[in-house]
Amino acid sequence: MTVKETESVQGTMDSRTEKRKTPVLYLVVPCYNEEEVIEKSARVLGDKMRRLQHVGRIAAGSKIMFVNDGSKDSTLRLLHAAAARDTMFSVISLAGNYGHQSAILAGMMTARQYADVVVTIDADLQQDIEALDKFIDSYTAGSEVVYGVRNDRHSDGIFKKGSATLYYNLMHLLGSRVITNHADYRLMSRKALDALSEYQETNLFLRGLIPTMGFPSDVVYFDVKAREAGHSKYTLSKMMTLAMDGITSMSTRPLRMISILGMLVCLFSCIMLVINLVDWAKGNNVPGYTTTMTVSLLIGGITLLSLGIIGEYIGKIYMETKHRPRYIIDTFVWKEDDPAKTEEED
Question: Superfamily for 12-235+325-345?
Answer without folding.
Answer: Spore Coat Polysaccharide Biosynthesis Protein SpsA; Chain A (3.90.550.10)
